[in-house]
Amino acid sequence: MKKAIMIITSVLFPVIAFGGEVTATINSSCILQNATITVPAGQAATAFVVKALSNGTSCSTGGTPDSKGWGITLNGNKVYYWSQWQANAPSEIGGPLSGLSLGPGTYQVFVDGGSGANANISFNL
Questions:
Q1: Domains of the chain
Q2: What is the pLDDT of residues 89-123, one digit of tens each?
Q3: Cα–Cα distance between 111 and 72 in angstroms, integer?
Q4: How many CB atoms lie under 10 A from the CB of residue 20?
Q5: Cα dist. 3→6, 10, 11 in Å?
Q6: What angle do CA 65, 70, 74 make, to 5 degrees?
Q7: Residue 96, phi then psi, degrees to nearest 5
Q8: Handedness of CA 20, 21, 24, 27 (dihedral sign)
Q9: Quick check: bond before 96 cis, omega within 30?
Q10: At the N or C end, where does the chain have fewer CB atoms within 10 A?
Q11: How many CB atoms lie within 10 A of CB 82?
């Protein structure tokens, strides 16, 4: 009888994970356009995935920037940052990304690079 109740409960009340996807960019005038992640009270943002990351075109030389990176801030403080210089191994602050969990608050996602740079990030709530 207990097994039957557990099966019915899991069918009637499935676990649903809501989340989102944000994109931070640097526009053609080389102005950073942050993206916002809002985590409601009682929830956490987890399961972050970088869906796209581009360093764009250098605003000063017109060439490809030597590095790329992106990060997340809370009240101006970095809580996560990923960067890579040329073909060197990437570095993370506040990582690894796979274990990142953001509590309630309003976070800003930013990208490093030049004109056309973007970071597209998905997550679960």
A1: 17-124 (2.60.120)
A2: 999 999 899 999 999 999 999 999 999 999 999 99
A3: 9
A4: 14
A5: 5, 11, 12
A6: 145
A7: -75, 155
A8: negative
A9: yes
A10: N
A11: 21
